[in-house]
Design brief:
By secondary structure, the chain is an alpha/beta fold. It has a domain of about 150 residues: TPP-binding domain (Rossmann fold), CATH 3.40.50.1220. Helix content is about 35%, strand content about 20%. The chain has 10 helices and 9 strands. The protein has a 6-stranded parallel beta sheet with strand order 3-2-1-7-8-9, sandwiched between helices. Strands 5-4-6 form a 3-stranded antiparallel beta sheet. A hairpin with a 5-residue loop joins strand 4 and strand 5. It is elongated and about 55 Å long. The chain starts with a helix and ends with a helix. The mean pLDDT is about 95. The protein binds nicotinamide-adenine-dinucleotide. The site of nicotinamide-adenine-dinucleotide has 27 residues, from helix 2 and helix 10.
Length: about 240
């Protein structure tokens, strides 16, 4: 492992335009379960798989059930950035990291101080009324009981996340592709690379170094110059 950490450090040292691409595994060390863990827990409590609960058609039909899942599994009150979020924010401050491209919806990269964060799947911190568009903060939704309703028109309030069956934001996608195309190093971490189209974006990377840090194997391991099968917070806390 030490050898791999040293190699990762060397790759970082010789790179100037690093991009990080991550997913739910980046936040597990902050106490937020990843999808697979959610899946496991779901089996005891929910009648539908998470992918279905988090789909647009499900939300439209069963908003109460969606919000039951949201409160049980999506929102983790008091979650704080971990060593992975903090190290990435520090790399950006030093001018080495161009941006974080994340599939996460928890806002922890920004909480750690990262400025240039491309949230492919939106964020739970912003919410809006599906009828009149009025905007609400996370507390409004979290503190409501059952399905939150707009205080202006009574419409259902939903989080500004990309549900299954919905398209990704074109502007965010374009910016992610641009950053990946220009990067000289890509670090992929804490993602199963199973969710498309997000996972397909990494093929836009044409730079020199590709490192992948994930607890379990991914379909893209063979593309990486370096694969570290560990916890990303633990790995990053050994770098400088
Ligand atoms: P995923 O659950 O499919 O995969 C997570 C991967 O991270 C797994 O391969 C796991 O082995 C690995 N992992 C877990 N903890 C790790 C750690 N500490 N260090 C390194 N690797 C670790 O997650 P995904 O690929 O992001 O896709 C699932 C979808 O679910 C995404 O679209 C995402 O938006 C959403 N999601 C988001 C959050 C969040 O915002 N925190 C949480 C759960 C799910």
């Amino acid at each position: 492992m030490d050898e791999k950490i040293e190699k990762l450090q060397n790759m970082l040292d010789e790179s100037q335009r690093v991009v990080f691409f991550g997913g739910a595994g980046v936040s597990t060390e902050s106490g937020i379960p990843d999808f697979r863990s959610v899946d496991g827990l779901y089996n005891q409590k929910y009648e539908y798989p998470p992918e279905e609960i988090l789909s647009r058609s499900f939300f439209d039909r069963y908003p109460d059930e969606f919000y039951r899942f949201y409160r049980d599994k999506l929102i983790v009150r008091g979650a704080k950035p971990n060593a992975a979020h903090l190290f990435l924010a520090e790399l950006e401050r030093r001018g080495k990291l161009r941006c974080v491209i994340t599939q996460n919806i928890d806002g922890l990269h920004q909480a750690a101080g990262s400025q240039n964060v491309l949230e492919l799947h939106g964020t739970l911190l912003k919410n809006y009324c599906v009828q009149c568009g009025k905007r609400f903060d996370a507390a409004y939704v979290q503190d409501a009981s059952g399905t939150p309703r707009c205080d202006k028109c009574g419409g259902i309030v939903r989080p500004d996340i990309v549900l299954y069956e919905e398209g990704l934001d074109g502007d965010v996608l374009t910016r992610a592709v641009t950053e990946l195309t220009r990067a000289d190093m890509l670090i992929i971490g804490g993602t199963s690379l199973a969710v498309y189209p997000a996972a397909g974006l990494i093929h836009y990377f044409r730079g020199k170094h590709l490192a992948l840090i994930n607890k379990s194997p991914t379909p893209m391991d063979s593309l990486a110059e370096l694969v570290i099968p560990g916890k990303i917070g633990q790995v990053f806390s050994q770098l400088h």
